[in-house]
Design a protein that fits this description.
29% of the residues lie in helices and 27% in strands. It has 425 residues and is α/β, with parallel strands linked by helices. A hairpin with an 8-residue loop joins strand 8 and strand 9.
Amino acid sequence: MKLTRTKGLRGTISIPGDKSISHRSIMFGSIAEGTTTIRNFLMGADCLATIDCFRSMGIAIEVTDKVVTVHGKGLRGLTKPDKVLDVGNSGTTTRLISGILSGQDFDVTLSGDASLNSRPMKRIMTPLNAMGADISSINDNGCAPLLIRGSKIKASHYNSPVASAQVKSAVLLAGLYGDGPTSVTEPAVSRNHTELMLQSFGVDVICEGKTATVIPPNKMTGQDIVVPGDISSAAYFIVAGLITPDSEITMKHVGINPTRDGIIKVCQAMGADITLSNVEDSNGEPTADITVKTSRLHGTEIGGDIIPTLIDEIPIIALLACFADGQTVIKNAEELKVKESNRIDLMVNNLKRMGADAVATDDGMIITGGRPLTGISLNCKYDHRIAMTFSIAGINADGEMDIEDAECVDVSYPNFYATLKELAE
């Protein structure tokens, strides 16, 4: 994909459905009783992998342009698949489904692509095995492929060393099959979509401070779900509208869950012209229309409890910092090293190649804004968030940006380039 400088991004767009909520809607609908209908489902590769996994375990799932319908079979309704479950590139699928599969009465193997099979899974294996699960790494390297043997789950409490919604969710979902309450305490509260959606399916979930507790239910009941636009996908157009000259972009019905809205807080702290309107509630998830206009920005410091609320947005925030006056410091973001790529190194190295003043640190980066950027040829290591970030960089750089593996954006935003072109016309 080749991109050159653009002036003036203008228009109103709809953002694809939230990836986190789309995954969970399939999983919870499958183990609920009755029918779950899902509107604005994200038809990206990761979420389609989740659908394939549950179809392989006997769940009928119908997919049309507008609605996904899940015919749930209850907490004990899954059946042993006749093949390895293919999770593709999806870490969310792998970690969350592991919690559900821990309490089944059959054995299953999970495996994904080369990138997925190199990502750390001990972070879920350790707490789940402590609950009575039987999960092992087939290659004995702490990564997928994983062999999960169905087990009896014991009620337990887990003090998580990391603020990770995937770790928390894996434990809580295993806890659905426990013999008593299961709880997780985090160092900072991570995104809470699992807790909110479980409640909407009729599960008793108690959230107090940094601890979430699930009471094993007798049943879950199918729901009608409208998935909000994914703020992690909106982030690229939020930043594009702020840094591209003569721009104004409105994004409709975007999720602004307070465990996910760190990007908005950072933009406000940097002096952005960003407005929220039509604030509503959708299945317990707050949503809003977000409007941004070209802005004069200044640097800021980003760290501490806000990091879990914007961990996926740090690459695009790093680009935003290149267009702000002064220095921006991002810290406490070690988690970036174990995403689809090492996002600290990949961002800093390629921003420097473009001419930015960027320095990697052990837990983040330091960026001093104001230097003009020049397009480069870039391999994104098949990381969708890196590809979208450098696409926005490309339309604000001199020369030509050439992204070699641009198709990787299909994981979370299949129409990304079409939307970018629409706003530029």
